[in-house]
Amino acid sequence: MGVVSLAALTILDAGPLGQIEAAHIGGFKNVGLRLQPLLATDQTVVGDSEAEEAIKQALARTGLGVLEIGVFPLRPDTLVEAFCPTLAFSHRIGARYIVCPIEDPDRNRRLDTFSRLCELAESCALEALVEFNPYSACRSLAEAAELVRMARKPNAGVLVDALHLSRSGGHPRDIAKYAPGMVPLVHLCDAPPPPSAELSEDELRRESRTARLLPGEGSLWLDELLDALGPNAHISVEAPSAKYASLPAAERARLACHATQALLSRRNQQGREDK
Question: Which of 1, 113, 197, 200 has the smallest C-beta neighbourhood within 10 Å, fewest atoms?
Fold first, then answer.
């Protein structure tokens, strides 16, 4: 397995600097940061020289690597050139991936937008990953994979989020249909079984942002998912939960790290016993 990181959404309220500190205290060696604001509550870092310098110093002091940067939504009116300052700063702090949810229902337009974003990301040594989810304009693994295929960019790929794969009706076996390496990153979490009644888009969004479970707390096929991704895929633990929201960010990070390491340790032990 590749590196294990803490996704920003798990402790989004901490802000980028707090996410670094919490990930380090919680036991992670890598972190994901939200540097391209999406919500009104998201902190603006890029363009603030003091905030940028604080981020760089915190990363140097903790030794954390930066796995992913969010969020770069592709909308009908998106001007990808506006992302250039964030892409450049992401490159300066050594990030590997940018996360791109799709909010443009026009397939031709979003293809053009994504292709251009891939080009800009490549100039900053970044890979652009399409993130599908059932409440967006790109609702499934198949749609995300098709967008990547049509873009024909060497730095384009798909991010598979365990919750979104489940709630979109997908399964880890679906990943086998695509070329190895197309999914270099997974957002790992757990969840209860899908409810019998279909959830609205607002309910799906709320579950995604506030009601995930830590790995091992639910019923998702996490072992099968990790098997399907292969040994080189990276893990970003994205498990925001109202259950733990009152805890300090560092404690939430510690719980996420402990749960993930327990899952991986059990898998390693099982693998040794099977040999």
Answer: 197
- pLDDT band at residue 273 under the 50/70/90 scheme: low
> Identity (one letter) of the amino acid at 137?
A
pLDDT, residue 228, reads 95
The closest alpha carbon to 33, from 85, 58, 68, 83, belongs to: 68
Average pLDDT over residues 99-118: 98
Q: Are 10 and 237 in contact (CB under 8 A)?
A: yes
Token pair in block for residue 262: 């327990």
Show the tokens assigned to 248.
């300090």
Which stretches within 152-200 are classed as H helix? Answer: 162-167
Residues 36 and 88: their CA atoms lie apart, in Å, by 12
pLDDT classification of 1: cutoffs 50, 70, 90: confident
DSSP letter assigned to residue 115: H
CB atoms within 10 A of CB 205: 15
Q: DSSP state, 199?
A: P
**Whole-angstrom distance, CA of residue 248 vs CA of residue 275:** 41
Phi–psi pair at 234, nearest 5 degrees: -100, 150
- Residue 195's pLDDT is 81
Residue 18: Cβ within 10 Å count: 18
- pTM: predicted TM-score of the whole model, two decimal places: 0.95
111: left (phi over 0), alpha (psi -120 to 50) or beta: alpha
